[in-house]
Specification:
- With 629 residues, this protein is of the alpha+beta class.
- The protein folds into 4 domains: 242 residues, PPM-type phosphatase domain (Phosphatase 2c, domain 1); 121 residues, Alpha Horseshoe (Serine Threonine Protein Phosphatase 5, Tetratricopeptide repeat), CATH 1.25.40; 77 residues; 112 residues.
- The protein contains 18 helices and 11 strands.
- The strands form 2 sheets. Strands 2, 3, 4, 5, 8 and 9 form a 6-stranded antiparallel β-sheet that branches. It has a 5-stranded antiparallel β-sheet with strand order 1-11-10-6-7.
Length: 629
């Protein structure tokens, strides 16, 4: 009954381009309860391309199998058409822009993928319009491009959604729109909107009667009168909703709905009150969570980590309750940072300086995931613990030198430890250094009577070990971890032979730290090598842009490793990539020029053939000469 009690009139035109091909298609079907109108524009330019026709036929068939105007149904129609283009047997990949319009003779809904266009006019005014799925339209939305420049912008056919898309196909589906008597719809392809202004279309519909064909004729006449250069194929369709269906049972349905809706409304009011209370409680929890979170940040910035831990734990508990993923992640990262700093402070106060240093290093690493909060405090503590460790390392080195009867050098180490401890106000370390010096002087008195030759031999061995250790420390400080590992291993061997357990234990720690540094460097080297392999593969495939990207990534890694030789090697390879890109661009330019030349020759040949045919026709129509008697 809906179709019989409505008056929907449709008219359209679809013409081929100058190359005598038309990859546009328009089709529609009007059933008793629903109607479907589909327009498609084939993106491919092949003469035999069937993209648009296949798209329209598939959408119409899917609609007729299950007529509906729900969002899910319209999306299903378009996805069915997308699969049809992807699985079609064709010598080339099929692609098309499409707009589908579905109506129940009272309301309408449209779905779109690509840059075919839909416009709805009411009383001469534009009331509803589609938006192209193109980069140019994105620029218009971001106010980087004016609307009136869209029709000629170079990115207008750079589509992010279209039929024939293998991945990420997500067409736009509109809301329902209520129709009114005398509404009119326009569906058209790029051959129209690239050459006819939106304002001109509006003027044409403002002067429309109740027949759609004059509108189609006026738009086509406007287009052809301009004789646009390089006019492509075009399709223009219009639907006039002269009379919209009116449901005779509407009032009875409204009364029935009210009878059902009133109890539901009461339940909803009660539910709303309950939800409002829950919402207010949730808002209070959110406010408390955010306050605790920001208080934790302020306490970290004020170096008050015990208070920061209390506030951060409160924020984390509330975030878990509210299932706030963002605060959960941030507060968890902050809590790990706080706990590492507190552990470091505890070890520092207990005199466990190496444990403190390890915890501070862990905190420094955690700070990267906590917006670099507390980094200054952590670095100050790392410097402090490093100096404390250095004091005891100097004392330990002095002790080792004493064992090897190298009293003068031991005295230097103890004095250096005492001076460093005094400069940083490290009372415990300074007292330990003074005590070591006192023991040294006692040992010197005791050892004066010992065998000078044996003492000298031991001293030289200890000095050699200390020298190698010093070389290792210097290499480690410079970042030469390979050399540092060699020095430390040699020093370990020497201190093992000297039975210096303290230095052996210290060297084992340093060797472990050095091996960690080497492993990190090796990881960077492996990462750079992987980028180089990807770049080489891309270069072999002549994908120069991808090759350049991977070479740049490899160059960044080698730069961070300060590997100048590798950086120079990558730079040379990038020069070859740039040459490849330039060669591709030059080849493309020459191919375009050759295509233009061949096209010009073809046109000239056609013109010559046409002229020859006209000359022959004129000769055949001229009268024979009269005979002379």
């Amino acid at each position: 009954m809906r179709k019989q009690n409505s008056e929907f009139l449709t008219a359209f035109t679809s013409e081929a381009s100058r190359k005598i091909k038309n990859t546009d298609f328009f089709g529609f079907v009007e059933l008793d309860k629903f109607a479907c109108y589909v327009i498609a524009d084939g993106i491919d330019d092949d003469v035999d391309a069937i993209s648009a026709k296949l798209a329209v036929d598939t959408v119409v068939s899917a609609f007729m199998e299950s007529p509906s105007m729900s969002k899910r149904a319209v999306r299903r129609y378009l996805r069915t058409a997308n699969r049809a283009l992807l699985t079609a047997r064709s010598k080339m990949k099929l692609k098309a822009s499409v707009t589908v319009l579905v109506t129940n003779y009272v309301k309408l809904r449209y779905g779109q993928a690509g840059n075919t266009r839909f416009r709805l006019y009411r009383d001469g005014f534009l009331r509803m319009q589609s938006q192209d799925s193109s980069l140019s339209m994105d620029m218009v939305r971001e106010e980087k491009l004016e609307q009136d420049k869209l029709a000629q912008h170079e990115e207008r056919h750079n589509l992010f959604c279209y039929l024939g898309q293998e991945k990420g196909f997500s067409p736009y589906i509109s809301k329902k729109f209520k129709l009114a008597n005398a509404d009119a719809v326009a569906l058209y392809t790029r051959g129209i909107w690239e050459n006819v202004d939106e304002g001109e279309l509006k003027d044409v519909f403002a002067e429309a009667s109740d027949e759609p064909q004059p509108i189609v004729d006026s738009v086509e006449e406007m287009l052809l009168s301009r004789q646009p250069e390089g006019l492509e194929k075009y399709t223009f369709a219009t639907i006039f909703f002269n009379k919209v269906f009116i449901d005779p049972n509407r009032k009875r349905k409204i009364r029935k709905i009210l009878m059902i809706a009133i109890p539901i409304l009461l339940v909803l009011v009660i539910l709303t009150v309950v939800l409002l209370v829950m919402h207010n409680n949730r808002k209070k929890d959110i406010a408390a969570m955010e306050q605790s979170f920001y208080d934790a940040i302020e306490y970290i910035q004020a170096d008050n980590y015990p208070r920061a831990k209390t506030e951060c734990q409160n924020a984390l508990d509330l975030a878990n309750k509210l299932k706030n993923k963002e605060i959960q992640d941030d507060a968890s990262n902050y809590m790990k940072l706080i706990e590492s700093v507190i552990a470091g402070d505890t070890d520092l106060n207990d005199g466990e300086y190496r444990d403190a240093q390890r915890n501070y290093l862990n905190a420094q690493n955690r700070s990267r995931y906590a917006d670099n909060l507390g980094l200054d405090y952590i670095q100050d503590r790392l410097e402090q613990t490093g100096q404390y460790i250095t004091v005891y390392d100097l004392i330990a080195l002095g002790d080792t030198l004493v064992t090897n009867l190298q009293y003068d050098k031991a005295e230097e180490q103890y004095s250096a430890a005492q001076l460093l401890a005094g400069s940083i106000y490290f009372t415990e370390g300074r007292d330990s250094a003074i005590a070591a010096l006192e023991r040294l002087y006692e040992s010197m008195k005791q050892e004066q009577a010992d065998n000078a030759a044996a003492a000298q031999q031991t001293s030289e061995a200890q000095s050699a070990a200390a020298g190698v250790l010093s070389e290792g420390d210097a290499a480690f400080a410079k970042g030469d971890y390979t050399s540092a590992l060699t020095y430390y291993t040699t020093a370990l061997q020497k201190y093992t032979e000297l039975e210096d357990e303290v230095q052996v234990a210290a060297l084992l720690i340093k060797i472990a730290a050095t091996e960690e540094k080497l492993a990190a460097q090796q990881a960077l080297a492996d990462e750079a090598a992987e980028y180089m392999a990807l770049a080489e593969a891309a270069y072999e495939e002549k994908n120069y842009v991808q090759a350049k990207k991977y070479y740049l990534l490899a160059k960044d890694v080698y730069s961070s490793m300060q590997n100048d030789d590798k950086v120079a090697e990558v730079s040379r390879k990038m020069e070859l990539v740039e040459m490849g890109i330039s060669a591709e661009e030059e080849a493309a330019r020459k191919a375009a020029e050759e295509q233009a030349r061949l096209e010009q020759e073809r046109l000239e040949q056609e013109e010559a053939a046409k002229n020859a045919a006209q000359d022959g026709q004129e000769l055949s129509q001229s009268p024979p000469p009269e005979s002379v008697g």
